[in-house]
Specification:
The protein is an alpha/beta fold. Helices cover 46% and strands 16% of the residues. The protein contains twelve helices and ten strands. An eight-stranded parallel β-barrel has the order 1-2-3-4-5-6-7-8, surrounded by six helices. A two-stranded antiparallel sheet has the order 9-10. Helix 3 links the parallel strand 3 and strand 4 (89-92). Magnesium ion is lined by residues 35, 93, 127, 129, 153, 156.
């Protein structure tokens, strides 16, 4: 598993922010050509993406490019220009169906052939933010093996549904859980909504904790302030890791005695609890706080 606890959008027409993004220790940087960029700056943004991918050192951060939606008339040129500079993958917004992913995959394969990259190595994430996409979620999840994650797009969805936004966001709760359910069913990561109030660091921390509680594996972010609290919220705590390791040791011992279910620290433990503990250890290893061999 690759840790994608935070996915930082950087408007690609802003070179200063692109440079800044290399210094933040964020898991994923997303060079944005879509809604963070004004209509009359799209070409400059594409040129910057190519320049950034070719010349800036993003360290251990994954480098993603968010293209414009397939209905915008801009996506084709976004792909043609930026894929040759070899990002790690493409974030596709406003998808409606599995067919949209297959259309993008054609460009990815062509770019792999032109640049000599292994076929299948360019990855994809999709933003689920259209009502139609929720109806087609199972097909979308299976459209291409390139797909790594589903991203929840709150604002576009809220506008289309006509819901009133509240601070707690209960009006989008069902849609968020639906996304997590599908991601789990198809082995994908689930990346939660943006918290736009970037000056309130305590609020973004609480929002990230809630996202993690709902089963999201990471969160979209928009400002350097949000990197640390969000990545911390999606990293298992020292107590969780200690709990998981002790439980795994007890499990191994009970298995040797031929016991499936057993009592441990006053609670019943069986296979599902073990799976939860394993999940914590997988995420701790992905975040680099446990060695691969631990
Ligand atoms: N990526 C990288 N660096 C960023 C950044 C981002 N998303 N947002 C801010 N910064 C940098 C600024 O350049 C500034 O750096 P400096 O001190 O070296 O000049 C520093 O962080 C502090 O920024 P601040 O002054 O607090 O914010 P701002 O007023 O410059 O920008 C926003 C505020 C919201 C416009 C900006 O954070 C932003 O553009 N976020 C992304 C928006 C986006 O992509 N939206 C679409 C996806 S939802
Ligand atoms: Mg959107």
């Amino acid at each position: 598993m690759r840790a994608r606890r935070a996915l930082l959008y950087v408007p690609a027409d802003d070179w200063r922010k692109l440079q800044k993004a290399t210094t933040l220790g964020v898991d994923c940087v997303c060079l944005d050509l879509e809604d963070g960029v004004a209509q009359n700056r799209k070409e400059e943004a594409r040129r910057n993406v190519v320049q950034a991918l070719r010349t800036l050192d993003f360290g251990r951060a994954e480098r993603w490019v968010r293209i414009n939606g397939l209905e915008s008339g801009l996506a084709e040129a976004d792909l043609e220009t930026t894929l040759l500079a070899s990002p790690d993958g493409i974030v596709v917004p406003k998808v409606l169906s599995a067919e949209d992913l297959r259309r993008v995959a054609v460009y990815l394969e062509a770019a792999e052939q032109r640049t000599g990259r292994p076929v299948g190595s360019l990855m994809m994430m999709v933003i689920i933010e259209r009502a139609q996409a929720f109806l087609h979620l199972a097909e979308i999840c299976q459209a291409t093996p390139r797909l790594e994650a589903l991203i929840f797009g709150a604002e576009d969805l809220a506008a289309e549904l006509g819901v009133r936004r509240t601070r707690e966001g209960w009006e989008l709760f069902h849609a968020r859980s639906t996304l997590v359910l599908h991601a789990a069913a198809f082995g994908l990561q689930a990346i939660d909504w943006v918290t736009v109030d970037f000056q309130d660091v305590e609020w973004v921390r609480q929002e990230a904790e809630r996202g993690a509680t709902l089963g999201f594996t990471g969160k979209q972010i928009i400002h350097p302030n949000q990197v640390a609290p969000v990545q911390a919220a999606f990293t298992p705590s020292a107590e969780e890791i200690a709990w998981a390791r002790e439980l795994m040791a007890a499990f191994t011992a009970y298995q040797a005695q031929g016991k499936g279910a057993f009592a441990w620290q006053g609670q019943m433990v069986d296979r599902p609890v073990i799976r939860r503990a394993e999940g914590i250890l997988v995420r701790a290893r992905a975040a680099g706080i446990l060695a691969e061999t631990d």
